[in-house]
Write a structure and sequence with these properties.
about 240 residues; alpha+beta; four-stranded antiparallel β-sheet; 12 strands; globular
Length: about 240
């Protein structure tokens, strides 16, 4: 197997500061009240007999915030909403702009089997450091809206600098955990790092936070035409909020 040749090693200091603002805007857009219709068990947006409510989030408005990401011409992002009683969440897909419902079998959109996020295959991104970072962010947060009950565990958020991490730990209810969180945070460089190879394939290293497992260091392999696959995920500072659904 031929060893790949590294062409650039980049610490994304500037990109991280800009992306931090982007993440805040994205979370404000996504964190909206769940429409009453979605609180009833069922699947919505599959066909004309199972429509969405008239007022709902347009996921394409999220994509607009990501200036380095673009959808193939003639396509739109959409989603089916699943509520199976124990949890509710969207399953994103891509459809032609002139159609209203998905053309594939509804079972293909089961959120329990949606880890590969096939809708990303219709995205492309600018081959700049920010493009790689935005793709990783979008792949993680794009389905984090209208999360009901058990689906609330999908709360992973990018942490792009030490100040953000310290702000998070200042809100912790850690009476049951014997950890010096500020001290642990100050030992970590949260700046994302990008390794680019000669074929524009890259490995991105960055950090995320979840209330149910803490801070994690993660790595993704990224290729042009929006191929992204997580290759490493390691908890470095554990935390659990103690909330059980």
């Amino acid at each position: 197997m031929t060893e790949q040749i590294v062409t650039k090693e980049i610490d994304l200091h500037v990109e991280a500061e800009i992306a931090s603002i982007l993440v805040d805007k994205a979370h404000k857009l996504l964190h909206q009240p769940i429409p009453e219709a979605y609180k009833k068990s069922g699947e919505y947006g599959i066909d004309s007999e199972h429509p969405h409510p008239s007022e709902r989030l347009d996921i394409n408005n999220l994509l607009v915030l990501f200036e380095y990401l673009h959808l193939e011409p003639g396509y739109r992002l959409d989603y089916i909403y699943h509520n199976r009683g124990s949890g509710g969440s969207p399953s994103i897909y891509v459809r032609f702009s002139n159609t209203q419902y998905p053309s594939s079998d509804p079972e293909d959109f089961d959120p329990q089997h949606d880890q590969e996020r096939p809708y990303l295959e219709h995205l492309y991104f600018g081959l700049y450091p920010m493009g790689y970072l935005q793709l990783a962010i979008f792949s993680i947060i794009s389905g984090q809206f209208y999360l009901f009950w058990h689906s609330g565990y999908n709360d992973h958020r990018f942490v792009l600098n030490q100040s953000e991490a310290l702000l998070l730990v200042s809100t912790f209810n850690n009476t049951h955990q014997n950890v010096d969180y500020p001290g642990a945070i100050r030992m970590v460089n949260f700046t994302p790092h990008l390794t680019i190879f000669e074929n524009y394939e890259a490995i991105l290293s960055a950090y995320t936070f979840s209330q149910w497992n803490g801070f994690s260091q993660r790595e993704w392999k990224i290729r042009p035409l929006a191929y992204i696959k997580e290759i490493s995920n390691k908890v470095i500072i554990p935390y659990n909020c103690g909330i059980l659904f």
